[in-house]
Task: structure prediction
Amino acid sequence: MAANIVIGTQWGDEGKGKAIDLLASRADIVVRSQGGNNAGHTVVADGETYKLHLIPSGILHKGTLCLIGAGVVIDPKDLLSEMDSLSERGVTFDNLKIDPRAHVTMPWHITLDGLSEEFRGSKDIGTTHRGIGPAYMDKYERSGIRFYDLVHPEVFREKARSAGELKNAIITKVFGGKPVDLDAVIEEYVGYGKRLAAYIGDVSVLTYEAVKAGKEILFEGAQATLLDIDYGTYPYVTSSHPVSAGVCIGSGVGPKVIDNIYGVAKAYTTRVGKGPFPTELNDDIGKFIQDKGGEFGATTGRPRRTGWFDAVIVRHAVRVNGLSSLMINKLDILKGLDTLKVCVAYKKPDGTVIKDFPPVLEELEGCKPVYEEFPGFTENISSCRRFEELPEVCQKYITRLEELCECPVGMLGVGQDREQIIER
Ligand code: IMP
Result:
């Protein structure tokens, strides 16, 4: 039995759901350790499609323990509406546990997310407006409300009032915004706390016990490496650590328990929101990939920006996460393009060629991708289940990605369905 992590290696939406789906069906425990309802996982189970935001995908497998760790920020209103709509489809939550240390996203976080983005004007981050950044701000400022507080009304009322009063002062006096109705919100959230109280559980202890019992564990990542608060394209990032080390912090277990770290990438690159994207294609090819790949955000519906595979960023992800292997998804989408390009390095404005992803945007600015070209393919690869069945050009493309990223490709997605995977 093994403890496996699934991590995004680009800017999110790499199709982690597919790897998670496969591994969750074999897991005894599925753990979410960071992020919040900014995530959107599309998971297919028993022929049905589910869009999950906060609930670990193991919930679709009866008997799988689903844990939401201390590193997650929880919007109780959204969580309950996600649970209600899953309940209508027959999903049960007897096996769901939420760590008392996890922080709660309150309505003022959502208001402040919107107001801050508006204030930044053209320099906005392009957040999901789910209050994620402001909730993590409070956590690190040590003034946040935790899940324990939410399910203890007396504690909650006191903490929410003092936090809310300060936030309302900021909303009204700094931004000139409309204050949150504290009385109404506090009672509304006390109600949510009552409904969620049954789910409290120490995720660190539960995970550790599972490790000791030799259970199969899946740590499902949300967002991705290039959105990491430290190792991503700061400030165009999310406010958590969607890298493998973040899993340990966010679930409360040490790194020695981890056996495999799987990184997921697309055979090309996409990004939602703002921020640098060296291989972005603002042309017909970019549009072709967007349309054919159905590149629209699962959480906000925003069209995703598209571009060529960037081996510089994926190699960065291999290093930062200590990846065991890669899953490359959506290779089938590239069918029909005359030429495929892969970015192998960046050329700086002074002509220097670099292979390591620059640590700060100032150094990334002006960098131009250096491409290697491959012939395209026209064959339908969606029914291939073995690597050797792929057209030779596809095999060469993947083999070259392995060399460039310095990581083996263990799985390949060749179509939308969960069976359309080549396992190597
Ligand atoms: P926030 O997480 O809502 O603060 O948004 C910060 C940045 O992360 C924005 O560019 C979002 O589009 C991006 N982001 C957050 N969650 C996801 C995700 O699950 N997939 C892709 N991008 C995301």
About this structure: The first helix runs from residue 16 to 24.
